[in-house]
UniProtKB/TrEMBL annotation:
One of its GO terms (cellular component) is membrane. The keyword Hydrolase applies. It comes from Pontibacter diazotrophicus. The keyword Repressor does not apply. Transmembrane segments: none annotated. One of its GO terms (molecular function) is hydrolase activity. Coiled coil: none annotated. Residues 34-274 form the AB hydrolase-1 domain. The lineage of its organism: Bacteria, Pseudomonadati, Bacteroidota, Cytophagia, Cytophagales. This is Alpha/beta fold hydrolase. Pfam families: Abhydrolase_1.
Length: 297
């Protein structure tokens, strides 16, 4: 099952699969301890979390899936790819794993998918860790015209402007400024999209952003169910896609949140700052556990 291009030294995890209606979904499940579930965004996959998992699996159970259409998961032609459908798949994986006391770690377009789960099962989600993610179309400073009203947020606009370029170009532009990224690593993102010469319009990441405003509206109305979950926000301040205003919105959204800015990093903190992120996450989970124990005594 493992493709030839995957470097097992770089990504030394056992591949697991769950059979869903849409196809086979790939995930990794490493280590033991309190579960940390990592949700990727566009157009990446669980590979983005590899260095975090290597560190955190010593004390935690780390789970990271590839959404259908991404990474090592199936890429079915006729499937919906709307975030609502990804959220249903994630729900099925969580049901399959039967986890409790979960720390959800979300990034980018993974945020609404994780939050949809948390809204449905607030009793199972103990902590949230959020990396650069956009606020939904409901943050007032985004107005849409014509076709772009279906494309949510800056990522949508960015992808829309790239529909006719190749997957390779898309990856290079998204990771622009990541000069330190070695070519073999970049190739893992390119190859995971399927055919690197395919135009972006054919990729899961471009198809998934259409017509989701209503779903976001539904989530937004239910947000009070998750606003009290303790949240750690790690934010790369040089993000070209997501403006700092989004961070201000998230600060207002969560009642108890800690923000750690990374001044010199961009959208993909997991590539640049895995060690720091791992220690922040680990300390945060430990502190929250201590607080809960004190409250119960």
């Amino acid at each position: 099952m493992t493709p030839d291009w995957l470097d097992k030294k770089e990504y030394p995890f056992e591949s697991k699969y769950i059979q869903l209606e849409a196809g086979k979904m790939h995930y990794v499940d490493e280590g033991e301890g309190p579960p940390i579930v990592m949700i990727h965004g566009t157009p990446v996959w669980s590979f983005l979390y590899r260095n975090l998992i290597k560190i955190l699996r010593k004390k935690y159970r780390c789970i990271a899936m590839d959404m259908i259409g991404f990474g090592l998961s199936d890429k079915p032609e006729g499937w919906s790819y709307k975030p609502r459908a990804h959220a249903v798949n994630f729900e099925q994986l969580m049901e399959h794993l039967q986890l409790t006391d979960v720390t959800l770690l979300v990034h980018d377009f993974g945020a609404p998918i994780g939050f949809a789960y948390a809204i449905n099962h607030p009793e199972k989600v103990k902590n949230i860790v959020m990396l650069n993610s956009w606020t939904w179309s409901l943050s007032k400073h985004q107005t849409f015209t014509g076709t772009s009203k279906y494309l949510v947020g800056p990522l949508g606009k960015f992808l829309h402007s790239k529909l006719n370029v190749s997957a390779l170009t898309l990856i290079n532009e998204l990771f622009e400024g990541e000069e330190k990224m070695p070519e073999p690593i970049r190739q893992h993102y390119v190859n995971a999209l399927g055919n690197p010469d395919d135009q972006v319009g054919k990729l899961a990441c471009a198809r998934e952003l259409i017509g989701i405003t209503r779903w976001y509206d539904e989530l937004w109305k239910e947000r009070n169910k998750i606003q009290n979950i303790p949240t750690l926000i790690l934010w790369g301040e040089r993000d070209k896609l997501i403006k700092i205003e989004a961070l201000q919105c998230w600060k207002k959204f969560f009642h108890e949140c800690y923000v750690i800015p990374f001044e010199d990093s961009g959208h993909f903190l997991q590539e640049e700052n895995a060690e720091e992120i791992a220690s922040y996450v680990s300390n945060f989970v430990k502190e929250e556990n201590k607080k809960r124990e004190l409250m119960h005594h």
